[in-house]
Each structure stands twice: as C-alpha cells, then as structure tokens.
Specification:
- The protein is mostly helical.
- It has one domain: Up-down Bundle (Growth Hormone, Chain: A), CATH 1.20.1250.
- Helix 12 runs antiparallel to helix 13.
- The two termini are 29 Å apart.
- About 1% of the residues have low confidence.
Length: 392
C-alpha cells in the first residue's frame, strides 16, 4: 500500500472512530429520550421508520456524489451536515427536534456509506478486501464498546435530558476536529473521480447481487422490527439501569469485534457464502434470545448472540464490492443500500404496532423474517465458482 493510500485509509479509520464515539454516547438512548419528551411507543416506532427511510433515501445520492466528486470531498460534506444535526438536537429538546436533527445527523452514516465502501474498494483487492472491511468494522464498533456506558453514566448523573445534551455537545466538538483531519487526509488525495459520462452510466446489479439483496432485506427486517425497542425492553421490562444497558451494548460490540478476526482470516481464503449464512442465523436467534431474557445475565447472553451477527459482515461487504462495477462502485453500493433501505423502512413502525398489542409479537415476527432470509440465501445465493461463471 502506498503512502497516500495508507494516509487515506488511516484518516477514514480515524473519522469512523471519532464520529462514532461522539454519536454512540447518546444514540442508543434516543428511544428512551423520546419517551421522556412525551412520545408514545408508536411514535418511537415511527422514529425508527423515519431513520430507516433516511438510510434508504440517502444511499443512492451518497453513491452518486461520491462517484462524481470523489470520496474525500463527499465525506467532508456529509460530515459537515451531521455536525449541523448535532447542533439542532442540542438546541431543540423536543420530539420534533429529534426528528429534524436526525434528518441531518444521518448524513455521515448514510450518505457517507458508499464513500467508505469506495475507499476500501479503491485501495484493496482480493483477500485483502475482506481484511480491509474487517478493520473498518472494528474501528466503527470500538466506540460502541466504549461510549454507551459513558453515556449511561452521564444520563444517570445529569438526568435523561441533561445527559443527552452533554452527549450532543461532545459530538459537535469531536466532529469539528475530525472535519479538519478529513481535509488534510482525504479531500486532497485518492484517485480522480470518473468522467461525467461514466458517472451518469446506468447501474445494473448482477443476478448474484440481487439474490444477496433479497436475503439481506428479509434479515434486516428481522433486525428492524425490535431494534428501537431493545433499550425499552431492557430498561422498562427487565429493569436494568441505563449504565448497565450501556454495559450490555459493550458486550454486544466486544463479541462482534472478537468474532471478526478468525472469520475474516478464513473468509479471505475460502468461500464467503457460509459466513454470510452464519451471520443470518445469529440475526434470527437474537430477537428470540432477547424475548427469553428476564435478568441482566439473560440480556448479556442475548447481547453476545447479537454480537455474533457481525461474524460474516466483512465477507458480505466484500462480496458486494466484488460484484460491483469498479467504474460505478459508489453508485452500485448506493443502489444496493437504497433498495434494502426502502424495503425495510417500515420495519420499526410495524414493530411498534405489534409492540402496542404485545411486545412478544415484535420479537417473534422478527425471528420469522430472519429465518426466511437465511433460507433464501442458502438456496439462491450462488457460490464463488457460480458467481465467476455468471460474470463471464
């Protein structure tokens, strides 16, 4: 890897860590924060759907802007939008303020997703690509191990509203510092953007990528139904404190990080499909484990199972990049995540509707969708040799 490539990769890793640490201080507690602000369970579900919709709506524009202007400039713009969102959250402590602030906060994670894929795709190939996505995933998840317990402590000491506002302020300070680093490390380097003609060329998903997309949509519906209710389940039903919930989040992410190393080493040398399937199995098991939890120990076990959902994520992301046209990598990733996002955008609202009837229904429906996605991938996602034949 060249010096320029190393600098770009290092800057991206630092940006993912810093933005992630600031946001993870408070993001896991937003559903409970909304409840404090007077939101109903259905409104919390709508918030999750709103967030999922933005995730979908931002994916393709993020890819198009990345292909048109380059990864560095795109990430700089997306980061600046997120800083504006943090400021709105800090200044407007109301349900409407959370929705408006989230509209901008999502820019870094959602608009910037194709750009982060593109950086790895530009610098790494083959088995090293899986390793690159593994490193990226670890850097993104270390803040989730460290920050939520600190956020929970802030909430316990300053109250839900005061603790969240402190978290928003920390996000602003860290993100502004990181934007300066992006200017030096990413915005002035990297391969040139493609020509205007190439950046406007139509994006087509290969058949193998479409099969992965179908399975991914079903599994992400499984994730989305109970996602915003996990903190409510833990705090209001199992009766753990916000700080202990932060520790549970750390358990989830620590398990994910530990699982990456052997999985990435094997997936880089062997077939990637089994790792994708294993990931989907744990997605299916996670809501069932949450439903069965009645104590902190039970939740800790459920979170460990939840962490194992990440075991095949580097292999899945590398597979997406492998199957993308290099000249339209950003837009291909954007199209993929846009389709997936729109397919699952209603999951939290559906989960909220089920929750108002009986919370268990949310978890059981999620597990059923996860099982469907796992079976789809098992039967229809081609193996490596079949994918190579398809691409000829």
């Amino acid at each position: 890897m060249t010096t320029t490539a190393s600098r770009r990769a290092g800057t991206l890793a630092a940006a993912l860590f810093v933005f992630g640490f600031g946001e993870e201080l408070w993001s896991r507690y937003v559903p409970e924060y909304l409840r404090t602000l007077g939101a109903t369970a259905f409104t919390v579900g709508l918030f999750g759907t709103f967030r999922d919709f933005l995730d979908a709506a931002y994916a393709y524009p993020g890819g198009a802007l990345t292909d048109r202007f380059g990864t560095g400039r795109a990430l700089l713009a997306f980061g600046a939008l997120s800083v504006g969102g943090f400021a709105i959250l800090a200044a407007w402590p109301a349900v409407a303020g959370v929705f408006v602030g989230t509209f901008f906060v999502m820019a870094w994670a959602s608009l910037g997703l194709p750009a982060t894929f593109a950086v790895v795709g530009e610098e790494l190939a083959g088995a090293r690509r899986v390793v690159g996505f593994t490193v990226q995933a670890i850097v993104k998840r270390v803040p989730i191990v460290l920050a939520p317990p600190l956020g929970g402590l802030l909430i316990e000491r300053s109250g839900m509203r005061g603790g969240m506002r402190i978290g928003f302020g920390v996000s602003i300070a860290l993100s502004i510092a990181m934007l300066a680093a992006i200017v030096r490390g990413l915005a002035r380097g990297g391969p040139p953007p493609p020509s205007r003609e190439a950046s406007r060329a139509r994006v087509r998903l290969r058949p193998a990528l479409r099969q992965l997309l179908v399975a991914d949509c079903l599994v992400r519906l499984c994730e989305g139904l109970p996602e915003v209710f996990v903190v409510i389940w833990a705090i209001e039903f199992v009766r753990v404190s916000p700080t202990r919930f932060g520790l549970l989040t750390s358990i989830l992410m620590a398990t994910a990080i530990v699982s990456y190393f052997p999985a990435a080493a094997l997936a880089g040398r062997t077939e990637r499909k089994p790792f994708v399937l294993l990931t989907y199995v744990f997605f299916t098991a996670y809501p069932l484990a949450l439903l069965a939890s009645r104590s902190f120990a039970g939740l800790a076990l459920a979170m460990a199972i939840g962490g194992l959902r990440e075991i095949g994520e580097p292999a899945r992301k590398a597979l997406i990049v492998d199957l993308a046209d290099p000249a339209a990598r950003g837009r291909t990733v954007g199209v993929y995540y846009a389709w997936r996002g729109f397919a699952v955008a209603g999951a939290s609202a559906i989960g909220g509707a089920l929750w108002t009837i009986r919370p268990a229904w949310t978890f059981l429906a999620a597990a059923g969708l996860g099982a469907s996605g796992t079976l789809w991938a098992a039967f229809f996602l081609p193996r490596a040799a079949e994918r190579e034949e398809e691409s000829r």
